[in-house]
UniProtKB/TrEMBL annotation:
Domain (PPIase FKBP-type) ranges: 130-228
Coiled coil spans: none
Protein's name in the database: Peptidyl-prolyl cis-trans isomerase
Signal peptide residue numbers: 1-31
Region: Disordered, residue numbers: 283-313
Biased composition (Low complexity): 283-295
Tagged with keyword Cytoplasm: no
InterPro entries, sorted: PPIase_dom_sf, PPIase_FKBP_dom, TSP_type-3_rpt
Top-tier EC class: isomerase
Species: Nonlabens marinus S1-08
Enzyme Commission number(s) of this protein: 5.2.1.8
GO MF, one example: calcium ion binding
Length: 313
């Protein structure tokens, strides 16, 4: 005769096995895969052609509040506003006649990026792609829907932002004067003011963001308040000089900006050549100006010591 204890044990064991089986079946059914139901990422060149047509259409049919900026009273701090050229505004100058463009190559595509320069900025500092910028901004879709904004200025680490935003902001200079208002806030004089029109390939591309559908061209208006030259890894070399292939991208693929190929980009690496000697101790910048153009090259092979693991051998 089977004991009651043994019967209970078998019942519990069967229940456990049944639950495990159900869990495995559900896990298999719900696991992500690259099968026929997965949505493939679209071709970048194809999307760019579509984005460029949409951006050009916007620029040809819209204007900005230019009059306000031309008649700016002392202390005024206007925001860029866009509107459609129609009706009472039919005589307005289209944005397409006021923007400047630059070509940026990313992922095998040559992107045209348009920037509206309302005010270049009268300060002494102009950030590079590797620096930090204090910015107030508004981000919108081409239909005018706002997906992000900040009236209060925020510090941005430009290497960590989307390429289009960085490439736009770096065409401006910061404010020439900063004045305290007495209430804890600050006023800025001569800030760089502009807008950048970004194809999705220089933005978020297939990655859906809050308020931004996949493959959406976007617009940022902004005011550049301050700029700061950065040395992210404190190795004595400004980060802008750690762009080894000069593509204005500190995170280029295929180890282009990673000398020792250890997965850490040079601008975040304290020992760039992984020779056991910190970059700051390899005379990478003898005159201390942040530029390694005077770096020591002990063996005379054209590779400075801080990038040459063979120097000390």
């Amino acid at each position: 005769m089977v004991s009651l204890k043994l019967l209970k044990f078998c019942m519990k064991n069967l229940k456990l096995q049944f639950l495990i089986l159900i869990f495995l079946l559900v896990s298999i059914a719900c696991s992500p895969d690259d099968g026929p139901d997965a949505i493939p990422i679209r071709d970048r060149q194809e999307v760019y052609i579509e984005d460029l047509a949409k951006i050009n259409a916007f620029l040809n049919t819209h204007f900005y509040n230019e009059d306000e900026f031309q008649n700016t009273p002392a202390g005024a701090d206007f925001e860029i506003k866009f509107d459609t050229i129609a009706g009472a505004n039919s005589g307005r100058t289209p944005l397409s006649q006021q923007v400047v463009s630059q070509t940026i190559t990313r992922d095998g595509v040559d992107y045209k990026l348009y920037t509206l320069k309302v005010r270049e900025g009268s300060g002494a500092r102009q950030p590079t792609f590797a620096d930090s910028a204090l910015v107030s901004y508004e981000g919108t879709l081409l239909n005018g829907n706002v997906f992000d904004s900040s009236i209060n200025s925020i510090w941005f680490d430009l290497p960590s932002t989307i390429t289009g935003f960085t490439a736009g902001v770096t065409q401006f200079k910061d404010a020439s004067a900063i004045n305290p208002n007495g209430d804890g806030t600050l006023s800025y004089e001569g800030s760089g003011i502009g807008a950048v029109f970004i194809p999705s390939g220089l933005g978020y591309f297939e990655r859906t963001q809050s308020g931004i559908p996949a493959y959406s061209p976007i617009i940022f208006t902004f005011k550049l308040r301050r700029a700061k030259t950065t040395d992210h890894d404190s190795d004595g070399i400004f980060s802008k000089f750690e762009d080894l292939n000069n593509d204005k991208n500190l995170r280029s693929p295929n180890f282009a900006d990673d000398t020792d190929r250890d997965g850490r980009f040079n601008y975040l690496e304290i020992d760039d050549d992984n020779d056991g000697i910190l970059t700051v101790n390899e005379n990478a910048d003898p005159n201390g100006d942040g530029n390694p153009n005077d770096a020591l090259d002990t063996d005379g092979d054209g590779i400075p010591d801080y990038l040459d693991a063979r120097t000390e051998n």
